[in-house]
Amino acid sequence: MSEPARGPSPEPGPADVPQWINDLVPIAAHARALLRASAPTLALAVAAVLALPQLTPFSAPWMAAVCMVLGNVVALRHGGRNASTDDATDVGGNTTGSRATADTRAEVGARTQSTSGTSAVIAAGELRPGGRTGALLVVLDLLLTATGVAALVGLALAGTDRPLLVAAAGAAAGLAAGVGTVAGLELSGRRARGAFVVLAVAVIAAVVYVFNRLGPAWWWVLALAVVADAVGLLALRAGARNDRAPTRPGVP
């Protein structure tokens, strides 16, 4: 007997997609919107770290200052409870990111509403608790990594001693500053942004002074990386708690 002909295998439906993939889609879209909005700020930082080594023989403090300004500007602009994806358009004046995010959220919501989905947040086409903060932390990491690579190129072209150490120390200081600001905003609320601006200026001035007096060291880089990771976990927990908390009208 001949075997019965088999029809084509059915395409995987929404129920066949792992839930963690559905959870990551709006987070990735939000991160993409933040990257687009931060592009002008990143371009200015990259130009600065490329030019500074050619202008000053001891550029370590200024490289760290540029990286810390970048981290704090992005964190202050997009960090804090109820920071929406639309905020990502204000820094660079780009609305494409928010539209793409909204379209992606709507598509994810349409796909998952027909399933027994375990996440009501994703079914509504929104970020999971903590996703907003996680996306911002990833963006900070990407921005400071790119700036650190550009700093390494600028330092190497200028013939600076220990260019890898100077670039790594600056990028680590910028990441620690940005992550610390995100954590502070999640813990204290966006109304405290004015205080964090003053604190950021004071910290940048202190770091520039220390870098100028002592010079960077590899143990600094390691310590700053450990601090950034620990504070990042704290920011994630605080962000997830804030996202779960009910939002009262008129309360930021």
Q: Can you tell me about this structure?
A:
The chain has 252 residues and is mostly helical. 73% of the residues lie in helices and 0% in strands. The protein has nine helices and no strands. It is globular and about 55 Å long. It starts with 18 loop residues before the first helix and ends in an 8-residue tail after the last helix. Residues 84-125 and 248-252 have low confidence and may be disordered.
List keywords for this structure.
mainly alpha; single chain; 252 residues; globular; disordered C terminus
Structural class: mainly alpha
Largest β sheet strand count, sense and barrel closure = none
**How many β-strand stretches?**
0
Helix-strand pattern, N to C? HHHHHHHHH
How helical, in percent, are the residues? over 70%
- Mean pLDDT across all residues, rounded? 77
Basic shape: globular
**Cα gyration radius (Å):** 22 Å
Strand percentage lies at under 5%
Tell me the span between the first and last alpha carbons: 72 Å
Number of helices: 9
Unreliable stretches:
84-125, 248-252
